[in-house]
């Protein structure tokens, strides 16, 4: 009981990771995986979560032991490594938030029948609202509010999943044939699913920043064992929710022959409407709340993370620039991120798919390198031998790096050839 109380007390970074990760990778990709290919897609989902685990765990491990961010760990390896991470962060800055807010705005319009404002107007309202929450509430508010959001989301998804299992699979179309997984279309879908499941590897730096903020709010520093247990709760929750979304797609859409939209917004709306036809109109609220809570919490955590890590990267790259060490640096960066990404939405709305493709390419191709940087950081002199990853975790890390390398090479080959 004492151990449980201690774990609840340090809950924060792991739940924030879960909240950030369950965006389009879960709502869209996991659901589509079940809808198009059935239960078999649970294998790549579990595999991706397992093989990427060490890279995110190292962010928590390094910060808990050293009380420094993973970004500073990269700097200790050499400034070149920090510039690599800065490049990935820069690409994310101009694409990821804009894409998330557009999907969330469109989802809000479709789910709640708001037609008086366009997606750009609703995205602007979301930018303002979330920016105010992050600036006024700071980390502690983010942590506490997302505990409530994650609870609501988990309950809504659990109820939804139970309902679809109880109802049974949707009737199959007579002429339906399951699409091939290992042709070009299927492989490209697998690449997207695995690449974003549970999220991109650069988010390990985000977890590290949240862990730093969590340590600042605590009187007594938690042990490494307790900090890792807290993160594991969030990580396992992330994997479970991915399976929930897979089951929802499998039970409501698989075999029906329904043509699924390539647009995240349209697909989410399509899913909600098909779900209510399958279960009943009375169940609309559960899936609508789950879908919107998924995207809203992802927007909030991603906005917070990109702002924090940007400030930290700039402070380490330009140590003599006092502006990045100012107590208002985070608040200013939150506002700048909101303005930049809203302008991206307004100016590049027709080319958003191309911008996201660029971010995807950079993230996927550099993932093995970032994974190796994380391993090198936690195996360095900053961490005492007793706190370094055990041999089993090191082996899993190397397996993950080989997996990500093959994945990146094949992705490049598919694009260029």
From TrEMBL:
The keyword Membrane applies. It holds the Pfam family Nramp. It is found in: Membrane. The chain crosses the membrane at residues 37-60, 81-108, 114-136, 148-165, 185-210, 231-253, 282-307, 328-349, 355-375, 395-416. Keywords: Membrane, Transmembrane, Transmembrane helix. It is a multi-pass membrane protein. It comes from Flagellimonas marina. This is NRAMP family divalent metal transporter. Its main location: membrane.
């Amino acid at each position: 009981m004492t151990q449980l109380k201690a774990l609840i007390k340090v809950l924060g970074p792991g739940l924030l990771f879960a909240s950030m990760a369950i965006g389009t990778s879960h709502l869209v990709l996991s659901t589509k995986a079940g809808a198009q290919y059935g239960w078999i897609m649970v294998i790549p989902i579990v595999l991706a979560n397992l093989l990427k685990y060490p890279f995110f765990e190292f962010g928590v491990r390094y910060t808990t032991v050293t009380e420094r961010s993973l970004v500073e760990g990269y700097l200790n390896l050499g400034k070149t490594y920090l510039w690599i991470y800065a490049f990935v962060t820069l690409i994310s800055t101009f694409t990821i938030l804009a894409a998330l807010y557009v999907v969330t705005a469109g989802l809000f319009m479709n789910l709640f029948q708001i037609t008086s404002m366009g997606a750009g107007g609703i995205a602007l309202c979301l930018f303002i609202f979330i920016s105010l929450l992050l600036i006024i509430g700071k980390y502690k508010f983010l942590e506490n509010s997302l505990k409530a959001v994650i609870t609501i989301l988990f309950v809504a998804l659990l109820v939804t999943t139970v309902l679809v299992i109880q109802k049974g699979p949707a009737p199959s179309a007579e002429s339906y044939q399951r699409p091939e997984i290992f042709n070009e279309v299927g492989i490209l879908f697998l690449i997207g699913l695995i690449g974003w499941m549970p999220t991109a590897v650069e988010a390990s730096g985000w977890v590290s920043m949240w862990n730093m903020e969590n340590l600042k709010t605590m009187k007594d520093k938690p042990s490494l064992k307790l900090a890792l247990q807290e993160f594991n709760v969030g990580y396992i929750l992330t994997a479970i929710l991915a399976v929930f979304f897979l089951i929802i797609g499998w039970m409501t859409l698989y075999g029906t022959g329904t043509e699924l939209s390539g647009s995240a917004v349209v697909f989410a709306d399509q899913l909600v409407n098909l779900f209510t036809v399958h279960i009943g109109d009375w169940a609309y609220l559960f899936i609508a709340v789950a879908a919107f809570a998924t995207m809203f919490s992802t927007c909030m955590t991603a906005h917070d993370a990109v702002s924090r890590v940007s400030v930290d990267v700039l402070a380490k790259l330009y140590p003599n620039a006092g502006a990045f060490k100012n107590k208002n640096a985070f608040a200013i960066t939150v506002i700048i991120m909101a303005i930049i990404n809203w302008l991206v939405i307004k100016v590049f709305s027709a080319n958003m798919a191309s911008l996201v493709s660029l971010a995807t390419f950079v993230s996927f191709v550099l993932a093995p390198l970032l994974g190796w940087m994380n391993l090198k950081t936690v195996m360095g002199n900053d961490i005492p031998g007793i706190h370094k990853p055990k041999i089993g975790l090191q082996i899993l890390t190397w397996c993950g790096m080989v997996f990500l390398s093959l994945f990146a090479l094949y992705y490049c080959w598919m694009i260029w050839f």
